[in-house]
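Late entry, zinc ion complex.
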Amino acid sequence: MLIMGLETSCDETGVALYDSEAGLIANVLHSQVELHARFGGVVPELASRDHIRKITPLTREALHRAGRTMADLDAIAYTIGPGLIGALLVGATFARSLAFGLKIPAVAVHHMEAHLLAPLISGSAPPLPFIALLVSGGHTQLVRVDAIGKYAVLGESLDDAAGEAFDKTAKMLELGYPGGPKLAQCAENGDPARFHFPRPMTDRPGLDFSFSGLKTYTRTTIAAHQPLSQQDTADIARAFEDAVVDTLLIKCRRAVQQTGVNDLVMAGGVSANLRLRARLDSDLDARVHYAPLDLCTDNGAMIAYAGWRRFELGDRAGLAITPRARWPISDLTSA
Ligand code: KG4
Ligand code: ZN
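Prediction complete; structure with ligand written out below:
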């Protein structure tokens, strides 16, 4: 079967086609980075308007690239939450209406479930149960996955998400937006021995995270070294990145020990961080799975794939279009 996936939950418009036999056959993306860059972060209303501009041409382009037409589609999947409500409305309305017009089923997809399943698109599926480390701009969670749709949250961030902490720290260091990749790039030239930043909440039991104290520590360090030289900026970026990576590693190790589960899937935008990948690969006593770099950040491919997995379970969206800004992954069921 051929399923189209549409993603518009934040600042990326993504459209992809997943064929249950051939796999991913088209994946097109428009990033709004330039649109939001001068504001230093995503402006929701601008995001919605840009999705409206891009969604029709991108849909045509995805079909064109795969050499398919609308008539070939068997189902359409779209992100229904969590995310920016206006941005979600654009994709959901477009996709649900298109499916209605084509008289084919629609599937409403949970954005974080789609991230979680993204490493399975091209890699081999780890055996169930597995642990998932979800690290994106809005979420930091450790989840035990017992089946698709059966998620137990083992721990999560009590304040900022890991990606959010990267973005805010990059802003403090005047590295621009989006912060995560910019900070990681800057950290390449940093001296790892110069500063040692705290590893928050690693000295007490449990699997929750907190990154706001680390942000404050970074702010204080920046203030104490004014004016920052290029080297100071790189050294601070490196210390921050090392602290986040180490914290995530320590909690993953604890989750593996606590559950006795030996496969860990890492997903979401921050899973594109090369230092994090390298540390988990070398220092975690478990098999680590992650998606190719372009499938870590937001994209239509993961929505098409999650939509297909959900379709297989019998999931179908009704005609009502009800996006959700907030939606805990633990509320999902196995359809
Ligand atoms: O999953 P995603 O694309 O969107 C959300 O669902 O939030 O994640 C975006 C987040 C941003 O905070 C971004 O700075 C971060 O992922 N990110 C990174 C890297 N690439 C993206 N953080 C650290 N290192 C990276 N290489
Ligand atoms: Zn995302």
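The mean pLDDT is 97. Will revisit in the morning.
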